[in-house]
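Tutorial, part two.
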Amino acid sequence: MLKQRLQQKLLQRLSPQQIQVIKLLEIPTMQLDQRIKKELEDNPILEEGVDFDEDEQEREESTQEESETKDDEEFTLEDYLEDEDTPSYRLAANNYSKDDKREEIPFSTGVSFHDHLANQLGLRVLSEKQKNLGLYLIGNIDDDGYLRRKLSAIADDLAFSAGVETDEDELEQILYIIHDFDPVGIGARDLQECLLLQIQSKDQNLPEIGLARKILKYNFDEFTRKHYDKIQSRLNLSDDDLKLAIDEILKLNPKPGGAVHDSHSRTAHHIVPDFILEEVDGELILSLNSKNVPDLKINRQYSNMLKSYAANKQNATKQQKEAIVYVKQKIDSAKWFIDAIRQRQNTLLFTMRAIIEYQEEFFRSGDEMHLKPMILKDIAEVTDLDISTISRVANSKYIQTNHGIFSLKFFFSEGMQTDSGEEVSTKEIKKILADCVNAEDKKKTLTDEKLMEILREKGYPIARRTVAKYREQLGIPVARLRKEL
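Running the prediction step on this input gives:
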């Protein structure tokens, strides 16, 4: 049996304005500039410029009132309505004839990696079918320079998609030609083949080159695992001969595709700091990097339009009323956006000041050893903001200091207690760990067990598995792979 009844619930919902602030808060300065430009394009009410307070605005309006009434180009509601029906011929210029010569300014661009290979293929004397097969193979070479697909699969693709009958042997012959292209090593199917192609292009009369070729061809697994003692024993080599051969191999490029500049696929990523911190006369001064963020204001002509409508409201037509509703919506939207930008800037500064105060010792010295353990919750408690807000502030933001540019996430880390009971940041431990590895004897590299003992001697009681975790986070390979001759 169905029953109807009233029930009251207390729900917490975000308003559209709050959602807008949240979205603006998490984007960095570079994206904020683009977001503002988009809003300026979408909302005609919004424009660049410094806004005045209401009193100053009224004073300026009163001084300009007389001149505005005499201005034949005054912006009125009627002008706005007429703009909606502006015929297309008034918006486009048609002052070109068929005889006009249109000259376009040429611009230079880099040659893509695959175009570079295709150009070399065009210089070879090949049949039409061979050229098409070569272009198809080149299209399957990845940006590192490798052909990672099997020739049998490529042959099947050509048969089904292009209707071209071929086999592995024919494709192998074309690939052999591509292997001779620049840079050397292009079109290899694995790392071993890539390095062999490069070493075979060198002078084989040199003893170290011939030896390096033998190592790559017959002892590749031992080489990758750095089992140099096994290689030395199998080939009956002296320490010097082995070192010379290994040095030649280390000069080779494991990713030959990266040797060709590709302006289409590789773009430079510049870091634009969101904050700038300067130390002046011993005082830390924080500012927002708002160099590319324009000041925003409401277009005053639209505000005057609303005032004009309010004075003649009773005589307004239906079309005028609809236009005013639209204008009012756009004015409200512009006000919300300006307020959201203002809230974003205030929240960013407020949060960053709390981080600087918490990590003041580091910001003054620039020494990672002075970083304190700090998590999102610590700053949330200091600022009385939600942890999610602190997370959004720290996301993809950077600060420029006298000691370099740092990601805000750099300042957040877990902590642990030393033997003396002092709370230290895990970044401090990682710094000591990295220093130990950098200073080690590369012929007798330090194992995780030995690194654990060194850290414990320094007063950091951590387990071997923790040492391994920190080492991996720092991108440091295991002891055997760090070994050098």
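The first strand starts at residue 46 and ends at 48. In part three we will examine how such features are distributed along the chain.
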